[in-house]
Amino acid sequence: MDAKGTREHIVRAADELFYKQGFEHTSFADVAGAVGISRGNFYYHFKTKDDILAAVIAARIAERRRMLDQWEAEQDTPAGRIRRYINIVIANETDIEDYGCPVGTLTTELAKLGHGCMDSATAIFTLFRSWLGEQFTALGRADDADDLAMHVLAASQGIAVMSQAYHDREFTRREAAQLCAWVDAQAAKEE
Amino acid sequence: MDAKGTREHIVRAADELFYKQGFEHTSFADVAGAVGISRGNFYYHFKTKDDILAAVIAARIAERRRMLDQWEAEQDTPAGRIRRYINIVIANETDIEDYGCPVGTLTTELAKLGHGCMDSATAIFTLFRSWLGEQFTALGRADDADDLAMHVLAASQGIAVMSQAYHDREFTRREAAQLCAWVDAQAAKEE
DNA sequence: CTCTTATTAGGACGGATGTCCTAAGGTATC
DNA sequence: GATACCTTAGGACATCCGTCCTAATAAGAG
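The joint structure predicted for all components is written out below.
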């Protein structure tokens, strides 16, 4: 197989395992096993575990960027786009119940490990943060757009954490709906 | 030294290390080093690492219970008590920036590890959840007291996650103040 | 002081981990 | 078909981990 394909395969498998088991709890052997290659071959593509993590984070950023572009194409209004973001917690309900938010749980883990990739992980948050900020600006809230974006991020993270703790889908839906209503109320405040 | 004292000393050290480094990333040697005893002596007090975790969680529950009692004594009104809870994110600002919320980050980690102590960790959340529920009931919101309690928990967790990601104290204070205002608004709705 | 019990220190153990090396197998080019 | 390079497999390595055992020490009771 060509190196590019194997490398991508490794990143995909590592991405999923880092999400579902955590970065530290996932070993080279785990990833190699999931991909179906030997541990030795591994070393040909990535010298260290940190290299894999960096590649996984880069892949996540690229994927999220594509997702945001798609949302912009699908949703016509800024409020609709923000609501689309909030809707993640419902669309990915099952995974979030079991493994939490991929972004939040990774930054939390890397922060505790004092890992150098912490800043790259935070960059995923920043991607959403600025995108949400743009939407709030388009909503006529240029002055406090970033504050509002941070509020949406924080609320989503809170929902994810509690969702993981209690597996309560009613709670998740109720909070998401409430946050969407809040967004619409912010839109009404424009002008 | 007597066994009780050493045991408590171990639990205290493990509590701090589990919080600051994460459960998995903390080894027997780390805890033994922090306490100043040998790894062998360790085994006399706790047979397995899971035993230590169970003891740490039990200690956290007991400590939080004491804290809630104190808040009830200090604060006269239900709203004041809820605001006192929200104020944690500001009072413990420095630690939360570096290590996140002790309860949220632990449940997140244990969930990913598929650890058996996950339920005990969730019990710490439940302690706050029912206490907050009681306060909202006292506020005249018996019907949706638990929903409101969950909302406060989620909001606090969200603030903690973003605080850890961005170390932005202005954000933390703004969100905490906003949440306190929300509590007061809920109180106003009673009648 | 003596004997028993409670507590400690230090190290052995099997296993897992991240890293690295080397030899073999494929693949493409001339 | 021969050569050079890309890719793979399998294992060696030093280290650390959780667990467990044993012998020495401290403490307390008679």
